[in-house]
Structures are given as structure tokens and as C-alpha cells.
Amino acid sequence: MTNLWEDLETGPNPPEEIYAVVECLKGERNKYEYDKDVPGVVLDRVLHSNVHYPSDYGFIPQSYYDDEDPFDVLVLVEDQTFPGCIVEARPVALMKMDDDGEQDDKVIAVPVEDPRYDHIEDVEDLTQQTKDEIDEFFSTYKNLEEGKEVETLGWEDRQTAYDAIEHSQELYEEQFG
After folding, report:
1. Does 34 show up as a binding residue in the annotation?
2. Residue 162 is labelled as binding a ligand
3. Is there a binding annotation on residue 37?
4. Which CATH superfamily is domain 18-176 in?
5. Is there a binding annotation on residue 158?
6. Scanning 37, 60, 76, 176, which has its CA 20 to 30 A from the CA of 69?
7. Is 57 annotated as a binding-site member?
């Protein structure tokens, strides 16, 4: 059985085009996580706060980030896909974040195969409303979980996202290569 984290390449042309493995769906409160030991997507928990994912959310294959997890990616979509869906995506920004004292940045990407996002190339192409909604979600989604503190730390451009993806590939290779 294919392990989507270990067996799938990072993308067809990383860091400019990556694969995003969807775990959590736009508009839902279920927090799914890919369990490499199953392998498959399992329900980790239901978000304690009355918020929902602003878009499809998952991880980048063959990546490992500073929080010792696969690198997180939020793919902007009009309609949700499904847990385990593989989306070919273009990174356009990086949202910096601290989760309980660990660097837990998020790549923001758009689907390659959706012309609605062709005009979005970099962080300045995202509307302020889109950035505010993403920031608000990640600032508050753990508020009702005991002992959890999250802080969003601002937005970085596409090149910074590329650099972070390359960093995550290097960490993956060092740890698991």
C-alpha cells in the first residue's frame, strides 16, 4: 500500500509546483491527520472552537518541518475535495506561526488545475479578506483546547515559501533519507 508521505514525491517541480495531500476540508471542524502507520487518513479530533477550516488543509509529501511534522499546506479551493486527495499546487505565500513554542509555518498554495487562481502568483495577490480569514482561523482554532497557545506571526512572499519547502525537503532527507 502506498504511503502518501514517504512514497509520493514532493511534487512535479518543487518548490514551484508541489503535491498537497489533503487531510482537513474547507468548511469543516473535523481535524483529520494522515497516519503513516495505517497508512490512511484518520480522525484526530473535532476542533473545540466553533470555527471551520478556511480551505483544504494538509501536508507536503517527503517534507519534514521544524515542528517535527510533515510541512503544512493550505490549498485555496472554491469547493472542498476529500481527505487523501492529492492536489497539484503552486505555493504563493507563507504564513509564519508559533504553536506552543514551536515554529509551525503554513504554506499557502493554489491549485494548478483551477483557472480561478491563475492570477494569484504571490502574497500580494491574495485579498486582505482572505489573509484575515486564514489568520483568524489559525489564531483561534485551539483557543478552547486546554493548555494550547498559538500565535500567527505575519505573511511572507512566494520566495520565502519556496525556501521553506526546500528546507523541509532537506530536513526530510536528513531524518529519513
Report:
1. no
2. no
3. no
4. Inorganic pyrophosphatase (3.90.80.10)
5. no
6. 76
7. yes
